[in-house]
Amino acid sequence: MRKRKILISCGGTGGHIFPAIEIAKSFKNLNPDIDLLFVGALNKMEMIKVPKAGFPIIGIWIQGLYRNSIFKNTLFFIKLVVSLLHSFGILIYYRPVAVIGTGGFVTGPVLLLASILGVKTYIQEQNCFPGITNRILGKLVSRVFVAHEKMDSFFAAHKITNFGNPVRLQLRTKKSDDFVNQSRSFFGLSSNKFTILVIGGSLGAEPINKSIAYHLKSILKQDCQLIWQTGYKGYGDYGGLKSANCSVQKFIDRMDLAYSSADVVISRAGAIAITEISFLEKASILIPSPHVTDNHQFKNAKYLADHNACLLMSELELMGPKFIKYINYLKSDNIRNSIGKNAHKLFKYNASSEIAALILKDIKSKK
């Protein structure tokens, strides 16, 4: 009997890639016979991360529109046509029974053509304010999986299912002091110092990197130590700041150990980063990127801040005294525990399994 095939489209950042991988794992757990194929953008991080997770991927030639650079948009329409033709070829050859997109420019042509061809299509929207691509696709797809309430402002109510955001369940580790000590030892750090994890997103964040470098001496004087993910680009500028109390990393594969080590997390406010921080009951200082579509990172972080579930800072405040003030404030065990527990209550954490189960039910009922 011919295997049923499901196509998963994702790209650009870990916030789109890791949810897709978690959903793929859930498909395999629920039905090992399902044939899965990923579609990503050529030369983007999904072309490395997806095969590393054990799934096949095809890359297509695609880019988004750059708002502030006419030069960078020169090839946009050529790439758009090529990506549509390539997506059409993949869909005709692979013949999936379902297509799900978790974000990134690559999801546009793939889901658009799959919808036109009558394939069951789905999007998983991580943010409380969706981007323009998903708002358009939402009119075409079969279902929209969301993680926030009141999303019927953007999508038809009958299409919406709120399962929360997929989270990497393997990030949950033992809470024992011994395991925390082992985790810190993995990064070459002391077992008994207040530990701050800095993650500027999977690609790194220059304003956060610059701020950490500026405040580094002051942070270390507070008897703190750092696990600092700079991103690949930032490592060239900041990797030399590595010391006995500052573990500088290009990219952290063992995020389970990084989170286990951390007393406090300093992070961008991408939806998946927030979900993971909340899942693990971590206190956080969230610094939204002001350069994302519709300022959705600020809206993500504001949702937590309104529930006393994080401390919120703008990029403009990063070089000021508030940064160190917030770190000292979070040294209180009671305050950290309260913020972490408040964050944990805000979301659901079994989304990948529930999304996979519902899609499998849909395609089973399809005649």
Annotated CATH architecture of the largest domain:
3-Layer(aba) Sandwich
Low-confidence stretches: none
Q: How large, in whole angstroms, is the Cα Rg?
A: 21 Å
* Helix percentage range: 40-55%
Write a short abstract of this structure.
The protein has 367 residues and is of the alpha/beta class.
What does this structure look like?
- The chain is α/β, with parallel strands linked by helices and about 375 residues long.
- The protein folds into two domains: about 5-165 and about 350-365, Glycogen Phosphorylase B (Rossmann fold); about 170-345, Rossmann fold (3-Layer(aba) Sandwich).
- It has 14 helices and 13 strands.
- A seven-stranded parallel sheet has the order 3-2-1-4-5-6-7, with helices on both faces. It has a six-stranded parallel sheet with strand order 10-9-8-11-12-13, sandwiched between helices.
- Helix 1 (about 15-30) links the parallel strand 1 (about 5-10) and strand 2 (about 35-40).
- The chain is globular and about 60 Å long.
- The two termini are about 15 Å apart.
- The mean pLDDT is about 90.
